[in-house]
Known about the structure:
The complex is a heterodimer. By secondary structure, chain A is mostly beta strands. Chain A contains no helices and eleven strands.
Amino acid sequence: DAGVIQSPRHEVTEMGQEVTLRCKPISGHNSLFWYRQTMMRGLELLIYFNNNVPIDDSGMPEDRFSAKMPNASFSTLKIQPSEPRDSAVYFCASRRQGAYTEAFFGQGTRLTVV
Amino acid sequence: KQEVTQIPAALSVPEGENLVLNCSFTDSAIYNLQWFRQDPGKGLTSLLLIQSSQREQTSGRLNASLDKSSGRSTLYIAASQPGDSATYLCAVEAAGNKLTFGGGTRVLVKP
């Protein structure tokens, strides 16, 4: 299996622009998570899905952030409009739903908003 | 609210020495605890998962223990090598399928 695949790996955009991050989970995994990592705050859970349904989006910082999972093999995290404080590494992770299963992470998307 | 703490934030040891990494959590009602490794500019790699009913889990030179009642886990890495240099993070899963992460311990193994 290729693991969790994220794209793009790096994104540099200007403030105010729309940014879309993409994630393909591991086949067979039915839980998907979006995390953000910064030096100041560490790893923060933004939102997660079970069986393509958003379960908890309490970590989404503002209405500028939105996430979708139209099918079991694809998810997007969108920021519109982007701001410099959104600069971070965004990770997607997936796992089989259940209490004793490992979570697997993608390589992340490093977002820089200038 | 679950809080996960890892102390120290950074650790430097000579090659060959055993590594001891600590993780503590405030709410003992967890399903499992997972240890990850993160190399600079990379994603997280899962090392070990300990179920709440287990006391320890081993993989090669790695051994992780869990004391749920006291809210602590320890990751031991035997005979450290320079290739073990990385940041190690622990994460606990409680109700709701959420993983809550500690801040990580940055490890440097000097040749």
